[in-house]
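Two entries, shown back to back:
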Amino acid sequence: MKCSMRPNDVGRVEVGLNADLADRPDIGKAARASLRAQARALDLAERARDPELISRANAIYLALLDANGLVTGSPPVTDSFAELLAELGRPSADLRDGPDG
């Protein structure tokens, strides 16, 4: 399936990337160019409605975002029971061996 964008067209992924890059002067020109190229590739894949291309382009795009510190993601899932056991296993200044100790 053929899909094209005019040179000045900007897709939704590239628009979002531009917003993310607006407050990140620490990301250099080469990294920005690479991110923009992959954002455009993902936009083209979405316009083509090709699930395989979308999956590939998205995986590469997310890897580039992560490599440049742009993926925040959700915090890791914690195990409450394991945290409780760790807390109970820590020594406490209030614990004593007995009435004299």
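entry 2 starts here
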Amino acid sequence: MTAIEPAVNFASAELFFGIAWDPEYLDARAEKGEPSVLGLAAGDDEGAWWKTLLLGQGHVDPWMSAPLPPTPEAIIRVPDPAEDQAIQEAYLAEFRTWRDDHEVEIDTWRRAARLIQDDYGVDVGWHGSTIGGGTRYPHLFVVGSIQSTSQWEPKPVNTEMLEPGESWVGRLERFVDDLQIDVSGAVARGWLLTANLA
């Protein structure tokens, strides 16, 4: 008998305290063209929720003024590899100069980002599949609550963590309220188990 190779290259599971949405609810919203349940600005990295809060507090994102890399179209139009490399090197030189000139602003932005992330103690995670155009779904989790395993590795659960303090619930509620996250389609709150296939 020939052994069947598994179709999944990598699998992991995560146990965490947080909020997750019904995948069918999220799929239906996407099909209607509705915005993300996370409520962040279109085009933003939805994992960078802290950026939304910092901008709302009046912070300036220094990266908005960073020079943009050459577009693929601009490079394709250059038939000479040496000229292509010259374009890339010119961009890198421009970027390094910009970074050096804005070192203080970048450092201030990064420190503010770390502070607000530590203050909330909640983050955005993702689960689902990246195989063959699969879908990944967001969830919210309390930082420090995640217990995970990968590639079918048995791992004991830290049962001491299964009695969360009131602060965990409060953190989630504050996060949802301050970011105006839509939890109307949330499938569950509390201890949740999700899987990732890649």
